[in-house]
Write a structure and sequence with these properties.
By secondary structure, the chain is mainly alpha-helical. The chain is about 60% helix and about 10% strand.
């Protein structure tokens, strides 16, 4: 924990829904896209890519409810709707960018851990299915260095 911040169990119930909202992949993409300036709904959907109209509507409504996004309706025919980040939403951009940078810096390590876990899990499942088969050697990383142990012949 940071200095001056203590863990108060009762606060977890208040914090969890907010972290769930801002940690959602679509919310992160909406916040980063809106950080470039006001965007209309369909343009926002095009820029994000891969998001359904229903999911984008759900995401921007939640972000609007939490005070991160502002929605402006212009009285034109058809109505024009623009979304923009509020000052609170703008304040999220730096932490989200830092999290993205951290992810990129550690992506190879994370993917290697995932592959190792998947390989070990598959080997354990195969051993359970064929209990009389010779077990495959399982390689575990050295806990002190994080590197794979040397293979013996």
């Amino acid at each position: 924990m940071s200095p001056g911040i203590s863990h108060v169990p009762g606060n977890c119930a208040r914090v969890a829904p907010i972290l769930s909202r801002i940690g959602d992949k679509w919310s992160i993409l909406v916040i980063m896209t809106l950080g470039e300036g006001p965007v209309r709904f369909n343009e926002l959907r095009r820029r994000i890519g891969g998001i359904s109209q229903r999911m984008l509507t759900f995401t921007v409504r939640g972000l609007e409810r939490d005070g991160f996004v502002s929605r402006t309706v212009y009285p034109t025919i058809p109505p024009r709707v623009e979304y923009t980040l509020t000052p609170l939403g703008q304040s999220l951009r730096d932490p989200i960018q830092e999290l993205g940078q951290w992810t990129m810096q550690h992506l190879d390590t994370i993917e290697a851990a995932q592959a190792r876990f998947d390989r070990d899990t598959a080997a354990a499942a195969e051993q359970a299915a064929w209990p009389h088969a010779k077990p495959a050697p399982v390689s575990r990383p050295d806990r002190t260095t994080g590197s794979e142990p040397a293979q013996s012949s």
